[in-house]
């Protein structure tokens, strides 16, 4: 009885079957043109819906109407007027906030005293929506460009400082010990070990601060500006010119994309060793 | 130049790690430090190299280092500690950047160190493009570039596969052959210790105390011969018998921690 069962089992085992592949998916990869195709598809559906009258153009203008509005803005010169005002505020505010944030972030990362003082202040002030400070800044700095630039700089400063000191903290300690074991001076360790080691976190921080700057410039311009993309969007909204409003939104989106591309290029150039 | 561990004791908080460790590494001598896991071998090396301040006792130097030595006590690290953003050449040049040497002098030292470690063809390569063994060669090359009097090697082969270990061990034997450079070699591998060291300091379980200092009774050149293998094996067994029970206790302690 036992022998027969063993023989049957052996006969069954003699047939072969392929091991099922179970390792598909969970790979963080994307197709090169997938995103663009999806975007084009959405725009096409949106345009079709507008063209056949499925969507009221007052509530959602068709992409062609938005493109027309951008074109008219461009040829009238208003686009450059608004865009240059916003770019100036973002540029100056971002540079000031970044310079201060990098300096303070490095100080916190490298000095025990600066860490104990700095982190307390940053923890207390970082969560405050910076736009809430704009009226106070207008009171302090007047009604010109300064309060808007200061609002952006403040918003950028905190995020930058946090990403810089986190980056400094993340530099592998063994590299610092190695440098110390060769009697490398402090300044050279900062320049040759800590700065390049922290750079990935700093550049990742730049992506965030570019978005913060964009958010704050629009908010600040909506509160108190004659020119600027934020002011333009608010004005268009008040007049129910939704094609103009969305033209402003598209310009902001293109600006965000351009900044993302620049930072991506910087990462490719500076972090090629990763 | 001699390196002296002078009654070194150290604690991490409540944990006593080293207790009154004293020994001397003579000029050109290779001393291996072995002992059970967690006995403070690496801590002792950090203290000897001035990277950690002991609670009591001190590392001391006696005599002058060689005139051309730019960093008499030089580490070779277990994890290589290479700058990932720098090429092989830049990594080797890194400890020379702050010296008074001219670019030409630095270049000559880098070239020589790369040649001695067989890395000349890899000077523009980044660490991520190299195998573990080649990365450690860069670490050794960087150490050689500063012309050390004593190399402080913290388990330099433990992160490598057995074939690479064998090849690098041959490199160490070759580099230390002329006696111009001494070494403190921390390892848990008794075979490596017996193959490379003139003397082996055996530490006890934590807190590490010196249990015994074993002299290897033959020259490094003689250890490659077939007749020497039996003697070296007997030596390894002798050291293993000294630390076996404590190694078992240490392993259980680590598992329960």
* Overall number of domains of chain A: 1
CATH superfamily of the largest domain in chain B: P-loop containing nucleotide triphosphate hydrolases
Kindly name the structural category of chain B: alpha/beta
Q: Per the principal axes of the C-alpha atoms, what is the gross shape of chain B?
A: globular
Q: Number of helical segments of chain B?
A: 7
Number of strands of chain B: 9
- What would you call the structural class of chain A? mainly alpha
Low-pLDDT segments of chain B: none
* Mean pLDDT, all residues of chain A: 89
CATH superfamily of chain A, called what? MetI-like
- Residue share in helices of chain A? over 70%
Q: Which architecture name of chain A does CATH use?
A: Orthogonal Bundle
SSE order of chain A, as H and E? HHHHHHHHHHH
CATH class descriptor of chain A: Mainly Alpha
**Largest interface, by Cβ-Cβ below 8 angstroms: which chains and how many residues each?**
A-B, 19 and 21 residues
Q: How far is the first residue's CA from the last residue's CA of chain A?
A: 65 Å
Helix content of chain B: 25-40%
Tell me the Rg of chain B in angstroms.
18 Å
CATH class of the largest domain in chain B: Alpha Beta
* Total strand segments of chain A: 0
Beta-strand content bin of chain B: 15-25%
Subcellular location (chain A): Cell membrane
Family (chain A): Belongs to the binding-protein-dependent transport system permease family.
Keywords (chain A): Cell membrane, Membrane, Transmembrane, Transmembrane helix, Transport
Membrane topology (chain A): Multi-pass membrane protein
């Amino acid at each position: 009885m036992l022998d027969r069962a063993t023989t049957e089992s052996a006969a069954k085992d003699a047939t072969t079957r392929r091991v099922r592949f179970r390792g598909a998916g969970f790979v963080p990869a994307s197709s090169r043109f997938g995103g663009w195709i999806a975007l084009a598809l959405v725009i096409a559906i949106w345009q079709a819906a507008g063209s056949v009258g499925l969507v009221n153009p007052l509530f959602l203008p068709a992409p062609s109407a938005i493109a027309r509005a951008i074109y008219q803005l461009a040829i009238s010169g208003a686009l450059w007027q608004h865009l240059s005002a916003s770019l100036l505020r973002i540029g100056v505010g971002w540079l000031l906030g970044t310079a201060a944030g990098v300096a303070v972030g490095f100080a916190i990362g490298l000095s025990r005293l600066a860490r104990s003082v700095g982190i307390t202040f940053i923890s207390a002030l970082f969560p405050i929506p910076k736009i809430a400070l704009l009226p106070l800044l207008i009171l302090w700095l007047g009604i010109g460009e300064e309060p808007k630039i200061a609002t952006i700089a403040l918003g950028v400063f905190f995020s930058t400082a946090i990403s810089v000191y986190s980056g400094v903290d993340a530099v592998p300690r063994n590299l610092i010990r190695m440098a110390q074991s060769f009697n490398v001076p402090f300044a050279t360790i900062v320049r040759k070990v800590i700065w390049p080691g922290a750079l990935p976190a700093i550049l990742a921080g730049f992506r965030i601060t570019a978005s913060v700057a964009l958010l704050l410039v629009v908010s600040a311009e909506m509160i108190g500006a004659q020119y600027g993309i934020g002011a333009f969007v608010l004005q268009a909204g008040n007049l129910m010119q939704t094609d103009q409003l969305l033209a402003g939104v598209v310009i902001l989106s293109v600006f965000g994309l351009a900044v993302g591309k620049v930072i991506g290029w910087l990462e490719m150039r500076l972090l090629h060793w990763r | 130049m001699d390196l002296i561990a002078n009654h070194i004791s150290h604690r991490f908080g409540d944990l006593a790690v080293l207790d009154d460790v004293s020994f001397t590494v003579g000029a050109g001598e290779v001393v291996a430090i072995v002992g059970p896991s967690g006995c403070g071998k690496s801590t002792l090396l950090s203290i000897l190299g001035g990277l950690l301040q002991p609670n009591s006792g001190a590392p001391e130097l006696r005599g002058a280092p060689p005139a051309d030595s730019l960093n008499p006590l030089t580490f070779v690290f277990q994890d290589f500690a290479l700058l990932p953003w720098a090429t092989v050449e830049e990594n080797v040049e890194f400890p020379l950047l702050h010296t008074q040497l001219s670019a030409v002098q630095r270049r000559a030292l880098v070239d020589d160190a790369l040649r001695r470690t067989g890395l000349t063809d890899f000077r523009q390569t980044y660490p991520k493009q190299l195998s573990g063994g080649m990365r450690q060669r860069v670490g050794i090359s960087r150490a050689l570039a500063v012309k050390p009097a004593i190399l402080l090697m913290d388990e330099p082969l433990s992160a490598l596969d057995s074939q690479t270990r064998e090849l690098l061990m041959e490199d160490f034997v070759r580099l230390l052959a002329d006696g111009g450079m001494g070494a403190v070699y921390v390892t848990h591998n008794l075979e490596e210790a017996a193959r490379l060291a003139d003397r082996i300091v055996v530490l006890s379980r934590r807190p590490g105390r010196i249990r015994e200092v074993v002299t290897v009774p033959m020259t490094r050149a003689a250890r490659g011969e077939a007749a020497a293998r039996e003697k070296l094996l007997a030596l390894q067994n002798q050291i293993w018998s000294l630390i076996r029970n404590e190694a078992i206790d240490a392993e259980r302690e680590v598992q329960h921690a």
